[in-house]
## 1
Amino acid sequence: MGAKRKKTSGRLRGSATTKNNQPKTVGFVSLGCAKNTVDSERMLAKIVEAGYLLNYDIEDADVIVINTCGFIAPAKAEAIEIIKEASEYKAEGRVKKIVAAGCLSERMKEQLLEEVPEIDAVVGLGQRDNVAEIITALLASDENRLYLSDGDWGKTVQDDSDRLLINPPHWAYLRISEGCDRRCAFCTIPMIKGRFRSKPLEQTVSEAKQLVSAGAIELSIIAQDSNYYGKDLPMENGLVKLLDELEKIDKLKWIRLMYLYPAGVDDLLIEKIAGSEKIVNYIDMPIQHINDTILKNMGRSDTRRKTTELIEKLRKAMGDVVLRTTLIVGFPGETDKQFAELVDFVKWARFEALGCFAYWPEDGTKAAEMSGQIAQEIKEKRSEEIMLTQQKIAFDINNARIGSKLRCLAEEKVRPEQVLGRFYGQAPHIDSICLIENCKAAPGEFVDCEVSGTQGYDLVCKKI
Ligand code: SF4
């Protein structure tokens, strides 16, 4: 959930030129989640391959491409705001064409053209790999206001190889599937992305190998529902079989599992993670709520008892496991008592990391039609209470780490002798970080550290 704005930069010369032989430029804005980042990286590669220059200053680019997120209304609002900003540059004559791609384009289709008439092309998810041709066609004519879709997209799996990585090359996302077969009452994803389709095992492993050859030593496995992997192929214990193959990749050191659906975290998977040198003891498992009635109304197959037992099992199997979860508060009908049950559960579970969202009614979802919709200010108050409860837990966990030794992956040098890094319990972009003193390690190097203090959610470490 949520949207992140990333501008990309690059200076790769190609053959898409103006009449006076100057290369044409593309400004690219990537919004949304990790899955969208993968699509952005693939589009960027196609754009550069076609000979366009990437321009960090989007206001001076010939074409602006915005890869949108359409998951919830605030993400849509952010995308529209950026498209409107691009429209101003177009009105000033600086930018010639605006392309909207990604989830919001897929969700709204032609309606997006009506809502923002300055857009020249709305590109559906299945047209992702044609982005460069679309740009070239737009620039070659005055024709605009195109909607381009691929009706079969919801039945196929895309090729995510040959991407131009936005993030530092020592870590990358490995997308293992498209779509989702669950039907959570609040979620628009199945409407946008279609049914769950696993990327074939050989293709997934080959993409992983390519990322590792390009310098990745950490891969974050992503999907809408990662532990559903293989069920549609059909392949029994698909995720475990995929992990078996990934572990064999020599230079790959950390494998991180994101987006695990709690009911699908079975004993075999726990055993696999616990027994692996490479799969880090980090579980991202969105539980959404804990009250049984709310879970049932959400259309989730978990119950309080099952989730409680699972957390106990994970902590027992891996004493050092780091658990991240996501919650939704203010779901229709959520009473004060049910919310209090969730707060108590957060105190009991002591997740190392937690994200909380105020429920948002989305058109076309079952939950939006439910009675008992809760006022926005109550939802926000509840979200704040959860985050304050979690803050205390996260700070306590951090304090308890002082004096302990951690192996960190250097991310970025910020001062001559200070480096930002992450230990296995910190996923890129969404979690806190380690500030490593006395350290000159280059990005992608492992550094042994001792935790010397804390700074909010972050850890302060010293290189040993
Ligand atoms: S598991 Fe539920 S919340 Fe997650 S993508 Fe699927 S339908 Fe949406």
Note: The longest helix spans residues 376-400.
## 2
Amino acid sequence: MKNIETDVLIAGGGYTGLWTAILHKQQASNKKVTIIEKGLCGSGASGASGGCLLTWSSKYPTLKKLFGEQ
Ligand SMILES: Cc1cc2nc3c(=O)[nH]c(=O)nc-3n(C[C@H](O)[C@H](O)[C@H](O)COP(=O)(O)OP(=O)(O)OC[C@H]3O[C@@H](n4cnc5c(N)ncnc54)[C@H](O)[C@@H]3O)c2cc1C
């Protein structure tokens, strides 16, 4: 592997790693963010996810009360 200079190094290109990278870039777009992925980004659990909201759906009435419909 070649030497890399970076501000943030993230191991794993699943939802967790990719969202972490996006949030870092949103906070400081000049920050150099690097993801190291052993296979292909999204090839782990994130690529198999069914896209369901799971436990969030049962919290919907409370979330709506706190934050509104939108
Ligand atoms: C079949 C299935 C269905 C699902 N359905 C849902 C759903 O409907 N709703 C929901 O909310 N959740 C669902 N989930 C759970 C959800 O997909 C996971 O919680 C989520 O994707 C985890 O994301 P992650 O980034 O933490 O992990 P991962 O997606 O597993 O990403 C980790 C990444 O790290 C990489 N990695 C590992 N070790 C190294 C290393 N040493 N160096 C470099 N890279 C490495 C892996 O290759 C992988 O790409 C489902 C999971 C599965 C398996």
Note: The chain has a mean pLDDT of 92.
## 3
Amino acid sequence: MATNAQIVEESQKYLIENYGRLELAMVRGTGVYIWDADGNEYLDFFAGFGGGGVCGHCHPAIVEAVKNQAEQLLSHGNLFTNAPQVELARRITENAFGGKVFFCHSGAEANEAALKLVRLAAGEGKYKIISFRNCFHGRTMGSLSLTPENFQKGFEPMLPGNVMVDYGDLSTVENAIDDETAGVFVEPIQGEGGMNVPTVDFMRGLRKLCTDRGVLLVCDEVWTAPARTGKWFAYQHYGIEPDVMTLAKAIGGGLPVGACVASPEYADVLKPGTHGCTVGGNPLCAAAGAATMKLIEDEGLVERATVKGDEIVSTLRDANIACIEDIRGSGLMIGLQLDENAKVAKDVMTTCRNRGLLVCVAKNNVLRLAPPLITPDDELRRGVEMLLEALVS
Ligand SMILES: Cc1ncc(COP(=O)(O)O)c(C=O)c1O
């Protein structure tokens, strides 16, 4: 079998170098474990950047659903529908705010669909979108237009009229809304931007402001759902409902699924011919998504995220590690703000990886943990111990 070095060398000939990849090739995964081509084993506390994250790698129920579906039908055009996409949409909407779903493959595409829906719903002359500093909504031109300037460099001009305001500061949103504003995009907890959790008052105020000013509220739940934060969807922590919600990453159980969910009021805004995605909602990926949602329900993973997240946070707090300035997040979406004079989060990530634990970083020297929600207690304990050792080494 090819080694890490052999696969990486070949990859450099054929793959565009847009990722700054590590010199590792992954070959196998099960539950919270993943193995590279040299046979090294890793505890994956950041499974697939959230992409394989909720039920871990190759969960047997998801693999079985994919195998069964693969023997029946992989794909068909969207003039037809299929039972797996209907089941996935039902499971999403029943656990959210009703409404209807458009399927695609990624978070950026889900946000593109949401952008178009918002503009159509808002009506002629309303095109401006408000987003928040430290947000991340994707890399396509529309979603990039909502994302901070450092990601936009070299790709300007962006979509016109977008305004970026302070996360958590309602008055800046209020001042930014004008007669041409169509929508506000918000992550109910910012992931890439540093695991920032807004207050209940801010999110409720935002909902009210959008309603009062006739502006659509879009919650980007690409990182926060399903179940990761201890609710099916993170907006549910605040006792509000958005008009539109976008999903991707974990919703596909490891296969590419993106979704734009419109509330009942906006469910019929996108009419035939207004938007599309050739293999979006294909039965193979939808079967993986439906199996993931079923597992979350059957295994009580929403509740488990809260219980295990609280346990990890109290272990980390009790350890009293000097370089940890703050611990934040919700459920099993946890961020450790490190004192940059004492520890560089990227160095801790590398130490962890060299010792067999995968974690990640976010903006502002934050270390990020997002273990699969199915991770057994022993592995959760072992991963946290490895992390603590890395933090003091
Ligand atoms: C909140 C959020 N929205 C959108 C995206 C883009 O998702 P994708 O990489 O699937 O396009 C990301 C990716 O990290 C994200 O964190």
Note: Residues 301-318 form the longest helix (18 residues).
## 4
Amino acid sequence: MITPIQEARVRIRTMTHEDLSAVSNIERQSYQFPWSHGVFRDCLLAGYQCIVLERNDEIAGYSILSIAAGEAHILNICVHPDFRSLGYGERLLDDLLFRARSSSVREIFLEVRPSNKHALALYRKKDFHKVADRPAYYQASHGREDANVLVKKLTTDS
Ligand SMILES: CC(C)(COP(=O)(O)OP(=O)(O)OC[C@H]1O[C@@H](n2cnc3c(N)ncnc32)[C@H](O)[C@@H]1OP(=O)(O)O)[C@@H](O)C(=O)NCCC(=O)NCCS
């Protein structure tokens, strides 16, 4: 008899201080210049919208959104390397877009490295477009790397 493949249980919820070790662990596996544990703690303390995606009750991704002065800014979005290309990054991004719209925000911004092709593909798929460059914004192996600033206009149906 063939055993049916069990679909993973996925849910998105608010991040808590108890999640910070798991989140920092994914961060270290995902970025050459990761945020420290303290940066995530400060995001929670600052009241940013800090979100985790759980897969079978384990954290598989997270996202952080700041909303101020009528603008939303995506500060981080990341999926554990073992669980990429399963649609979780897009689910996290859709969740942030929903949260921004629910706060009556008209525009949502983010910075991304021009070398981050997978992230750029995700943002293009969701209709973000480039509005500016921030020169030498990111630390890099040799010197600094520019950031692309992307924006998406939010309407009730976009
Ligand atoms: C960017 C990131 C969040 C995408 O998460 P993910 O769960 O792998 O992405 P998804 O499976 O939801 O893919 C959604 C879309 O993103 C794009 N994409 C994601 N992975 C891709 C890949 N390996 N190759 C090409 N496009 C890719 C595609 O447009 C994809 O849509 P499609 O499946 O219809 O082609 C993930 O690669 C990641 O965590 N990277 C490290 C952290 C990071 O760089 N974050 C962004 C900082 S600005």
Note: The chain has one domain: 10-153.
